[in-house]
Design goal:
13 strands, single chain, four-stranded antiparallel beta sheet, 14 helices
Length: 542
């Protein structure tokens, strides 16, 4: 196995740590909407100002500067609202830093590839592991210019990183740039303005354990009554005691309603957010809370009842069930989805395919799902696959990050664990060792189905190949056992194998051929049986 990269160990993915549910605020009066808009605009302006101050602090941020910003915001809102705004600001700044680091890594990958290819002679053929030289002098010159461009971008990005400068747009950079392309977006200036203002509003509150119903700023009673603590400049709009405004709409969470009710009745922390969907003209309330930390089950426990290996592809999941010995059980399953269209359509397609996969896993009685730990960060750069535009579009369209997060959260609800495995060589080795042996006239095996078996075996801790070669001398223990075989304690490891035919020796078979009679034996070991037995390689454990 010289030249192959070292495989990383499989591991059980930790479960989700939070929950969020949403319900619509129906039957709001015009006065309710006017108050919500005023609160959102006022607190959104405070959030924008606080984010500007946080970005100006850069790496000089400290607990003292945080406390100073919070004191300034408290004068125009309240202590709890100021705390929610500063926390949201810090989360947004930290996210921008992580995106900045990912951008630098992507530039590093592109620069490394360009330098390698530019160092080769023009027309140098590539290999399976590395690209060759460029095809012409013209292409070489254009790529040298691109290398200079990426190097300049990398230098600027590293300088921003070291100085702690980030660039954040409240409301979203994409929506901000849409202002210059209204015709292509089929929006008027007034429609864009409404979306922009709604995205920059801030009507949210963090939960507080021990407080009434788990939140003092946005309070939701067990009956679904919603009230909001107004900031100081808008206290004159209150219609209830202590500067609160009670909405006429009520909420009733259909999903996880009982869990939410148990939390607020126990006065456990629940965070709320009120937002407007401008396109639909609807107001929504989102409730979220943290789950108690659940200990991840050991890897051996997840493997005890077998796994389902899942190969992720551009248009479907290819899944195969394996028992704990790594033997395929039944037929392959495929769960298609369509990643074209809007983001909402793509998300619904992925969610539907995962629902079908998880339901099948529950019916099969397995305890875990094996999936590749995919990350195409270095593969998405056009400098590595410049002419292979369709391939770049293929890997860029696969929602690997969102897929893993959604699979973990959905599987946890059904009591299933997710085992992440190294994706190296799963498709190649799966096709080499499993595609042809499992293909029958009534079962079509694709390369992706075979990859699902390879992923499942790797999740179980078995090698991908079906079985190893016999010992070099003979079949005794003198040369050692096979490296892939059943363990000493496995049931049936020394059991008989099914006969090749039910025809007695010497009688003509259905094909018209006659089998040889058994020869006389001189030793007990060579004593013949009445049937001829063969080793079935597909029923071999391990």
């Amino acid at each position: 196995m010289d030249g192959l990269r070292k495989l990383t160990a499989s591991f059980v993915v930790p479960g989700p740590c939070g929950v969020a549910v949403r319900d619509r605020l129906k039957h709001l009066t015009p006065e309710n909407e006017r108050v919500l808009r005023a609160v959102g605009a006022h607190q959104g302006a405070l959030a924008s100002r606080d984010l500007k101050a946080r970005c100006a602090d850069g790496l000089d941020h400290s607990a003292d500067t945080w406390a100073a910003r919070k004191r300034e915001l408290t004068k125009e809102s309240s202590s709890r609202i100021a705390g929610a705004i500063t926390k949201a600001t810090h989360d947004q700044w930290a996210l921008a830093r992580r995106c900045q680091a990912a951008h630098i890594r992507k530039l590093d990958a592109g620069i490394k590839t360009l330098r390698h290819r530019l160092s080769l002679p023009v027309g140098e053929p590539g290999t399976k592991r590395a690209a060759g030289g460029y095809r012409s002098k013209n292409e070489w010159f254009r790529k040298s210019r691109r290398l200079a461009t990426l190097t300049a971008r990398h230098t600027a990005a590293v300088a921003d990183w070291r100085a702690g400068r980030v660039r954040v747009v409240r409301g979203g950079k994409r929506l901000f740039n849409t202002r210059h392309h209204l015709a292509e977006s089929e929006l008027t200036e007034e429609q864009w303005r409404q979306r922009w203002e709604a995205e920059r509003w801030f009507i949210a509150a963090d939960g507080e354990s021990g407080k009434r119903f788990g939140n003092e700023t946005i309070r939701v009673t067990p009956d679904g009554e919603v009230s909001v603590k107004l900031p100081v400049p808008l206290a004159h709009l209150a219609n209830a005691r202590h500067g609160r405004y009670t909405l006429t709409a009520t909420v009733a969470f259909a999903h996880r309603g009982a869990e939410w009710a148990d939390r607020i009745e126990a006065n456990l922390a629940v965070a709320y957010r009120i937002h407007l969907d401008v396109e639909r003209g609807r107001w929504y309330l989102t409730a979220s809370w943290q789950r108690s930390v659940v200990q991840t089950i050991p890897l051996e426990t997840a493997r005890a009842r077998g796994v389902i290996g899942v190969d992720t592809n551009a248009d479907h999941f290819a899944a195969y069930r394996l028992d704990r010995h790594g033997n395929p059980v039944g037929d392959p399953h495929r769960f298609p989805y369509d990643l074209s269209g809007t983001a909402g359509h793509r998300d619904a397609q992925i969610r539907h395919a995962l629902t079908r996969l998880i339901n099948w896993a529950v019916r099969a009685g397995v305890a875990a799902i094996g999936i590749e730990d995919l990350d195409f960060t270095a593969e998405k750069t056009r400098d590595k696959h410049g002419r292979r535009k369709r391939f770049r579009q293929l890997i860029s369209g696969m929602p690997t990050g969102k897929l893993k997060a959604r699979l973990v959260s959905m599987a946890a609800e059904q009591g299933l664990s997710v085992v992440a495995v190294d994706p190296a060589y799963t498709s190649r080795w799966g096709a080499q060792h499993w595609q042809k042996p499992l293909a029958t006239p009534h079962r079509e095996m694709s390369r992706h189905d075979a990859a699902g078996i390879a992923i499942g075996r790797r999740a179980l801790g078995h090698p991908v190949r079906r079985r190893t070669a016999p010992p070099p001398h003979d079949r005794s223990d003198r040369a050692g056992h096979r490296t892939a075989q059943a363990g000493p304690g496995d049931r049936g490891r020394k059991g008989t194998r099914p006969p090749t035919t039910d025809q007695p020796p010497g009688e003509p078979s259905p094909s018209g051929k006659r089998k040889r009679e058994p020869s006389a034996s001189k030793t007990v070991r060579d004593a013949p049986s009445t049937h001829q037995w063969v080793q079935d390689s597909l029923m071999h454990a391990g």
